[in-house]
Design brief:
323 residues, mainly beta, 2 domains, 11-stranded antiparallel beta sheet, 6-stranded antiparallel beta sheet, 47% strand, globular, DUF5689 domain-containing protein, DUF6252, signal
């Protein structure tokens, strides 16, 4: 997978899963994780203090707010500090066990580990050191591992550990990278089954002539791009991605392989459930300070893998405050 595709994929993924409207505020916590029995049910006190932390650069990151989602399709965990720094963990499975880059994954819901210093900044990504975008750099070695030790469906709590080596390109040439090693990651968090619907945002479109009514609307600025997503259900979504410096009155025509903008339709989490193609997006309003953006879009979403099918996305509009 090339760099452009990787960035689009992760920006869109994080935009779908991260929402400030449903985070849990937590206090810094220095404890470990409670014991689990063989079924993976939490045998500790269900009201135990929440924790999300990790070590890097000689210090410990303790999240001030967290979000955990566990549903039939994936596990998503986010830990954020008041400085804007955050970790994002995504696992395309829902079971106690150990996960890494060799675990089964899909284009719609990949295995993901990343750390960002804040909205709009290029994140440190964990990728496969044999086939990923950093595979050609000898100073990158994949160390990613997520261990889910408990998913307590009664008390709605998930417990586990993680570690990874993240990398990002230095500059825009793609000729050098910088790495950061994250160790001793721990999470012990309450979870919900979905991100609560945000208020004040709108996202509309027609999918093959029928109204597409999202159950959740989100936007995220990352790696020089703004991803705007309307999702219904756990996975199905329509999204457009534009440059973060786009100005009102700008129209961008794009293809499935464009690097400056893109439209994507995700039907499901299977390898054949992701569609992209030719279209255009027009921004009618953008206030970078308030992080508010409005516009229109349309595109034809074609198959990335056989069988060859396509969907017409028309009359798209967005009015979103992004992170």
């Amino acid at each position: 997978m090339n760099l452009t595709k990787k960035i689009f994929q992760f920006v869109a993924l994080v935009a779908i899963l991260v929402s400030t409207s449903c985070s849990t505020d937590i206090e810094p916590y220095e404890g470990g994780i409670p014991p689990t029995n063989q079924t993976g049910n939490n045998t500790g006190n269900p009201s135990t203090s929440s924790v999300f932390k990790a070590d890097f650069d000689g210090q410990t990151f303790n999240a001030n707010s967290t979000q955990a989602i566990v549903n039939s399709d994936y596990v998503s965990i986010t830990g954020t500090k008041s400085t804007g720094e955050f970790f994002q963990i995504t696992i395309p499975a829902v079971a106690v066990g150990t996960y890494n880059m060799d675990s089964p994954t899909t284009a719609a819901m990949p295995f993901g580990l990343l750390y960002s210093t804040g909205s709009g900044n290029v994140p440190y990504l964990a990728t496969d050191d044999q086939t990923g975008p950093f595979a050609s750099f000898p100073n990158y070695t994949d160390t990613s591992e997520i261990v889910i030790s408990s998913i307590d469906q009664v008390n709605k709590r998930i417990v586990g550990t993680f570690k990874f080596t993240g990398a990002r390109f230095v500059g825009t040439s793609g000729t050098s990278i910088e790495t950061k090693v994250f160790t001793n990651g721990v999470f012990n968090l309450p979870f919900t089954n979905d991100v609560p619907a945000s208020t004040g945002n709108s996202f509309t479109a027609k999918l093959d002539g029928s109204n597409f009514v999202p159950t959740n609307i989100s936007g995220l600025k990352m790696s020089g791009m703004i991803s705007l997503i309307g999702r219904r259900g756990n996975v199905e979504n329509i999204g457009v991605t534009v440059p973060d410096n786009i100005t009102a009155g700008t129209t961008i025509n794009f293809t499935a392989f464009s690097s400056n903008a893109r439209g994507q339709y995700v039907l499901n989490s299977t390898p054949t459930g992701v569609f992209g193609g030719d279209g255009s997006v027009t921004v009618t309003f953008h206030d970078p300070t308030a992080k508010r953006i409005k516009g229109t879009f349309s595109f034809v979403a074609g198959s990335i893998l056989p069988p060859i099918v396509s969907y017409n996305i028309t009359e798209g509009t967005f009015d979103i405050t992004y992170m």
